[in-house]
């Protein structure tokens, strides 16, 4: 039997941690027992006019208390994520998970690794930074306002890049890596496509193994509907074409396995 | 004893006996493997697979889907691994379960369809569903499904080559669904399924472009259900062959509307995306309704609303 399941989770806490960025802890029955860094859950609204689940990455996993933390962006007025942000402690939410493959821990263990997060790709790097035993350089890119930085500082050396130059290195995560002279042996990254594209090309130029967590619009979240595919240079064994499913085969891929 | 009388949910589709009238809609359930982690496939009348062609198809560029009010729009473009891998991997997987296997067949030309149909002759597929109604591919698909003469012709060709009974899946993007139903019946269709998705468009005002890369997509989900019920009613009253009704079914009550309108069986599609257990729950709910209404056989409900 699979470890994936649909559950009604109770909201433990909800707080806004930056503009449009919310942090929610939820109490699960069993999903947290199986969850690993880099996986995600499908979150459902109670509103039947919004019937597709929202895939949200796991920011923290507390197996002892059977809790999960999601840090997510509210994408606008009247959206599903705005409904999530209005949930209060004691209220509940339907979730399906844990979904996706998660980050492979073995390649980075004991190495000098860079964990790179950008924008709403920052949160999944937190649980990875907690669980990965390695020399960790945490490079986090923000547009302007910072979040989760105190938590990251406990789990490695934090380097910040901001697009508006208000903190850390002005520019993007690659600018920060260059400015600080970082030389990772393994890279893990999650962020918007332009950032992943830059990280992929940086890593491949330097022949560094690089794991990227991809994003694409999803429907089922479990690999059935073939909505969230990404291009692959090789023919994929499952699809028999140059496509992999982000939700099921990913969201984490070795950078050389995918086109970004 | 009240509410506990034995009720018979079995359905006969062209000689194939389904344990209950509920199946999955093609394209929403893969070949069953992904959902088997959540759903007991043994409790479904049948699993209808994602459309399969003679060779692998890459499908459309992303984004392939968008949410719409009470539904969604998709333009997957019939990505599929081709009939060889399908026969080697997906049919043996489904064979492990006590449910009927309905293989959805797609193609660009008549020859493509026939190649797949012939390839399936010696496979343990129970029924074939011929997709002449996909709105998201340029050739084939809907090109056969919007003109009664083309639809009748391809049905006749498929029937000549098919070993299994043939379901023709109709598009709602036509002027007269009754005329289309009559055409495929005249061509020899054993069963008719409808509706496929309604062609729609959504504009992303933030990116100032189309929400799906294909520009148009097929709209599905609860928002289209009244249209689907009406079309099933019209088709059922135009032909004698059994009808599989679908379009926005989320629960047993929705499914019963289709059955009362004339569908002998129903498919659950988009609902699986927000409730993986939806199809099984629909089957259970229909049985509960039958007990409550002391319906001895599911066929006693089919098309009784005139």
From TrEMBL, chain B:
<feature type="binding site">
    <location>
        <position position="26"/>
    </location>
    <ligand>
        <name>FMN</name>
    </ligand>
</feature>
<keyword id="KW-0288">FMN</keyword>
<keyword id="KW-0560">Oxidoreductase</keyword>
<feature type="binding site">
    <location>
        <position position="50"/>
    </location>
    <ligand>
        <name>substrate</name>
    </ligand>
</feature>
<dbReference type="InterPro" id="IPR050074">
    <property type="entry name" value="DHO_dehydrogenase"/>
</dbReference>
<dbReference type="Pfam" id="PF01180">
    <property type="entry name" value="DHO_dh"/>
</dbReference>
<feature type="binding site">
    <location>
        <position position="195"/>
    </location>
    <ligand>
        <name>FMN</name>
    </ligand>
</feature>
<dbReference type="InterPro" id="IPR024920">
    <property type="entry name" value="Dihydroorotate_DH_1"/>
</dbReference>
<dbReference type="InterPro" id="IPR013785">
    <property type="entry name" value="Aldolase_TIM"/>
</dbReference>
<feature type="binding site">
    <location>
        <begin position="74"/>
        <end position="78"/>
    </location>
    <ligand>
        <name>substrate</name>
    </ligand>
</feature>
<feature type="binding site">
    <location>
        <begin position="247"/>
        <end position="248"/>
    </location>
    <ligand>
        <name>FMN</name>
    </ligand>
</feature>
<dbReference type="InterPro" id="IPR005720">
    <property type="entry name" value="Dihydroorotate_DH_cat"/>
</dbReference>
<dbReference type="InterPro" id="IPR033888">
    <property type="entry name" value="DHOD_1B"/>
</dbReference>
<keyword id="KW-0520">NAD</keyword>
<feature type="binding site">
    <location>
        <begin position="50"/>
        <end position="51"/>
    </location>
    <ligand>
        <name>FMN</name>
    </ligand>
</feature>
<comment type="function">
    <text>Catalyzes the conversion of dihydroorotate to orotate with NAD(+) as electron acceptor.</text>
</comment>
<dbReference type="InterPro" id="IPR049622">
    <property type="entry name" value="Dihydroorotate_DH_I"/>
</dbReference>
<dbReference type="InterPro" id="IPR012135">
    <property type="entry name" value="Dihydroorotate_DH_1_2"/>
</dbReference>
<dbReference type="GO" id="GO:0004589">
    <property type="term" value="F:dihydroorotate dehydrogenase (NAD+) activity"/>
</dbReference>
<comment type="pathway">
    <text>Pyrimidine metabolism; UMP biosynthesis via de novo pathway; orotate from (S)-dihydroorotate (NAD(+) route): step 1/1.</text>
</comment>
<feature type="binding site">
    <location>
        <begin position="196"/>
        <end position="197"/>
    </location>
    <ligand>
        <name>substrate</name>
    </ligand>
</feature>
<comment type="similarity">
    <text>Belongs to the dihydroorotate dehydrogenase family. Type 1 subfamily.</text>
</comment>
<feature type="binding site">
    <location>
        <position position="169"/>
    </location>
    <ligand>
        <name>FMN</name>
    </ligand>
</feature>
<feature type="active site" description="Nucleophile">
    <location>
        <position position="134"/>
    </location>
</feature>
<keyword id="KW-0665">Pyrimidine biosynthesis</keyword>
<keyword id="KW-0963">Cytoplasm</keyword>
<feature type="binding site">
    <location>
        <position position="221"/>
    </location>
    <ligand>
        <name>FMN</name>
    </ligand>
</feature>
<dbReference type="GO" id="GO:0005737">
    <property type="term" value="C:cytoplasm"/>
</dbReference>
<feature type="binding site">
    <location>
        <position position="104"/>
    </location>
    <ligand>
        <name>FMN</name>
    </ligand>
</feature>
<feature type="domain" description="Dihydroorotate dehydrogenase catalytic">
    <location>
        <begin position="11"/>
        <end position="290"/>
    </location>
</feature>
<protein>
    <recommendedName>
        <fullName>Dihydroorotate dehydrogenase</fullName>
        <ecNumber>1.3.-.-</ecNumber>
    </recommendedName>
</protein>
<feature type="binding site">
    <location>
        <begin position="269"/>
        <end position="270"/>
    </location>
    <ligand>
        <name>FMN</name>
    </ligand>
</feature>
<feature type="binding site">
    <location>
        <position position="131"/>
    </location>
    <ligand>
        <name>FMN</name>
    </ligand>
</feature>
<feature type="binding site">
    <location>
        <position position="131"/>
    </location>
    <ligand>
        <name>substrate</name>
    </ligand>
</feature>
<dbReference type="GO" id="GO:0006207">
    <property type="term" value="P:'de novo' pyrimidine nucleobase biosynthetic process"/>
</dbReference>
<keyword id="KW-0285">Flavoprotein</keyword>
<dbReference type="GO" id="GO:0044205">
    <property type="term" value="P:'de novo' UMP biosynthetic process"/>
</dbReference>
